[in-house]
Each structure stands twice: as C-alpha cells, then as structure tokens.
Amino acid sequence: MQRRIVINIMWRFMGGSFTRLTRCFSTSPRAVGWWENASPAAKDPITGVTEAFLADTNPHKINLGVGAYRDDEGKPIVLQCVRNAEAKIAGCEFLEANATEMASSLVEESVKLAYGEHARVLKEGRLAGLQALSGTGACRLFAELQRRFYPELPIYLPRPTWSNHHNVWRDAQVPQRTFQYYHPVSKGLNFAALVDDVKNAPDGSVFLLHPCAHNPTGVDPTEEQWRDISYLFKVKNHFPFFDMAYQGFASGDLDMDAQAIRIFLEDGHLIGCAQSFAKNMGLYGHRVGCVSVLCADAKQAVVVKSQMQQIARAMYGSPPVHGLLLVSTILSDPQTKSLWVKEVKVMANRIKRMRTALRENLEKLGSPLNWEHITNQVGMFCFSGLTPDHVDRLAREFHVYMTRDGRISMAGVTTSNVSYLADAIHEVTKHDEEALNICYTSH
Ligand SMILES: Cc1ncc(COP(=O)(O)O)c(C=O)c1O
Predict the structure, then answer these.
(1) pLDDT at 45
(2) How far apart are CA 294 and CA 115, in angstroms?
C-alpha cells in the first residue's frame, strides 16, 4: 500500500512519463569504451628497487638504488644553508611580487653557476633562462622547445644515460638516437667510439651531454677530451644540451664541475643547459631547477625566453614558490652561499671516501677482479659491472638492493655498511670473472 503511494507521488513528480519513472528504478547504465586500450605502464626501475627494499625486514638491508644524497648514517639530510635560508624567508612565501623578483634572481644566480660568475654572455643578455621544475622539468621544457622549432631533429642521448631522458624526449615527441659513451671492459669512456658517432651524426644535430658525474656510469671525459668534443661540435655545427643534475658531486668544486660548459662557452657555441638543485642542495622534494639557452644575441634571448614561458604556462602554469625562495636566498646571500659551497664539498668528499673504502675492502678480501673503476668513476654513481644475476643474488641472499644494470648509488654506502657490502659483492662475484665484462642497458 505504502509502495503504491510512493510510486504515485513519483509518477506525478516525473510529469507522468513512464520512461523517466522506470529509469529511476533501474541502475544507471555504465559508461563503456573509455581507457579500454590502456595497459599498465612499465614500472620505473628505481621505484621497483625502493619497494623491494622497503618490504625487506632484514636489519642489514642496504638501498643502493636511491639517487639522492644520504649522510654516513644512511639518512637524508637538510643542509645548514637550507636551514639558514628557511629562517630568512619565514613567513614571506605568499608574497607574489616578491616571488617574481626571486625567480629572476634564481635564474641569474643559476646561470652564473653554470657559465661562470663573470661570463661575458651574462652582461650581454644572451641567456634565455627560466625557473624549471627541477632537472626533469628543465629537460622537458627544452625538449618541448626543440620540438617546437626543430620537429624533424632527433636528440642524441649517450648510451647509457639516465633512463628518464628517453621518457622525457619520447613524451615531447622528439625522435631519439644514441651515441656510444661507455666502455664495458675498461668501465671508462669509449672516447674513440663517441668521437665516431659525433662525426657520423648529420651536421647540425642536437646532443645531450652530462657535463659532470654522468648518470649512471660515473664516467666523465677529461678536460682534454671535452676540448676535442667541443672542437668537433664546432666543425659539425652540433647543438650541445648540457644536463647538469649533480654540479659539485664529481669534484666537490662547483666551478670545476662546470668545466665542460665553460669550454664550450669559450669556443663560442650556442648552448642549452638544465640545472637541478635536488641533489646538491638536498631539495629533491621542492623541485627547483633552471633551464637556459645561450642565444646569438639579446634580442633572440628575449624571443626564446618568451617561447619557453609559453610552453611552461601551458604545461603547469608556474612553479611552486617555497623552494624558489630557498634557493634564491642561498645563492644571492654571500655568507649562505659560501656555507653551501662548503657543504657540497663535504657531501662529495664523503662519497669519495666511500669509493675508496669499498674498493679497499674488496681488494682486502682477495677479490680476483679489478675494482679500480670504483675510484676512477666520479659523482654519486658507480657503474659496478655487476650483472643482473649478481644483482638478483645480492638482493635475495644479502638484502642489498640496486638497479639491475649494476649501478650503485654511492650515497647509500656508509662507514658501517661498507664492509658488509664488500663481503656480499665478493661472494656473488668471486667465481664469475667473465660476467663482469658484459655490457648492460641503463636505468
Ligand atoms: C642526469 C639526470 N638529469 C636529470 C635528473 C633529474 O633530476 P631532478 O630530480 O632534479 O628532476 C636526474 C635525476 O636523477 C639525472 O640523473
């Protein structure tokens, strides 16, 4: 009876329409045909390593996958210069006008780090620079700029390179080529092959170069080799795009680590550059970086900057302010900057000490293998030569985690875990000399 009354009320409410009334009682039809052709995207290799590490309950576990700095207790750090900058900017991050000013100062100070404090091109106004979402965002902005103006030109990436380079230029729809870089037997630079590939690329190609602390190999060209590369680029009219994510981590000295860029600058190249403060300021989560393009003259720089601004505006609007304020405060205050310079050196030196300790421990154990490359390579990573099988055994039997290309993040090595790590590496490699000459793809 009650039900009949309810239906009656609804019938009247629906204006006497039978169709509308029955729709009320049936479940709404499910929308179909959306996203059906989407399959799961490949997992980022580093995420997989982190997940496996977190799931492991063994107290001796070591994470050598992470690409960010850790102190000698394996902990992430907040630099004192960052603490000082935090105190200085307390309460001012919502001042929009101030943020615009700070963004200009961030770019001004960043390009000084890359091209040199007194570089003439700064005074000439030939640099088109923009704050970017850390190093990744800087690469993406440049990739978009490349596609906008040179859609037919591929990007030449070193083989191997940071795996996300492939993703960034793929998503910007820029065709990709690679050039030879690493020599798996010497575990150093394959300079002759690199030179061949640079020579054989069509004139006027775009190349991505890691100016220091190459990820994942830890192998950088020498000063002389950089000079030769720069000369060749000049002859071929290639465009160098430097991705500098680890300035200071190779030598401990910010200027020394920018040497490749300075050489190209001296030789009169036009240059692109991505900079990140994720590692050398320990600001990974704040996503602060800079992208710059050295142009032919100031007029061109204004044009190029306006194009990059338009690209950024359509992709993410504008970057967050807090990290910007931190970095620009550190870089523009001489005292805080000199503290940062010292802290970069401390981080780089700790990594160098861990390289020495790991190599010495392996040698003391009587390893039949040559581990010189651990101390020859520089920066955050050691391209160990460990095979995917070794890496799997290290995880399974020793709770030591790294990417399957055998890349060791030296930041994960500490005074207290280095001998355990050496023992583990020795155990999985001592009968497998041959496998250590295999070439791997990178992550
Ligand atoms: C070579 C290289 N470029 C760029 C990046 C991106 O760094 P960010 O965290 O600043 O985006 C990384 C980070 O791993 C890198 O290794």
Answers:
(1) 81
(2) 10
Which residue reads 């239906």 in tokens? 7
At position 356, the amino acid (one-letter code) is T
For residues 429 and 371, the answer to whether their CB atoms sit within 8 Å is: no
Spans of the chain, pLDDT less than 50: 439-443
Evaluate: CB of 135 within 6 angstroms of ligand 1. Answer: yes
Nearest by Cα to 328 from 384, 387, 283: 283
Phi-psi region of 348 (alpha: psi -120 to 50; beta: other; left: phi over 0): alpha
Which residue, by CA, sits nearest to atom 13 of ligand 1?
Answer: 245
- The CATH number of 80-332, from 3.40.50.40, 1.10.10.10, 3.40.640.10, 3.40.190.10, is 3.40.640.10
Nearest CA to ligand 1 atom 2: 245
Write down the pLDDT at residue 10: 57
Closest ligand 1 atom, residue 278 Cα: 10
In angstroms, how far is CA 87 from the centroid of its own chain?
A: 28
Identity at 402, one-letter amino acid code: M
User: Is the CB–ligand 1 distance for residue 207 below 6 Å?
Assistant: no
Task: Report which protein residue has its CA nearest ligand 1's atom 15.
Answer: 245
Alpha-carbon distance of 1 to 430, in angstroms, equals 86
Give pLDDT, residue 342.
98
Output the pLDDT for position 440: 43
Residue 209 pairs in a beta bridge with 242
Q: Which pLDDT tens digit goes with each residue over 3-32?
A: 565 556 655 655 556 555 555 555 677 888
Active site residue 72: no
With CA atoms as reference, report the closest residue to 378 among 162, 221, 173: 221
pLDDT of residue 11: 56
Ligand 1 centroid vs 284 CA: distance in angstroms?
Answer: 10
Structure confidence by residue, pLDDT tens digits, 343-369: 999 999 999 999 999 999 999 999 999
162 is a catalytic site residue = yes
* Fold of the domain built from segment(s) 45-75+347-437: Aspartate Aminotransferase, domain 1 (3.90.1150)
Task: Name the residue ranges covered by the structural domains of the chain.
Answer: 45-75+347-437, 80-332
Relative to the CA of 287, which ligand 1 atom is closest? 10
Bridge partners of 129, per DSSP, are: 292
Q: Is 243 designated active site?
A: yes
State whether the beta carbon of 343 lies less than 6 angstroms from ligand 1: no
CA nearest ligand 1 atom 5, residue: 135
pLDDT of residue 95: 65
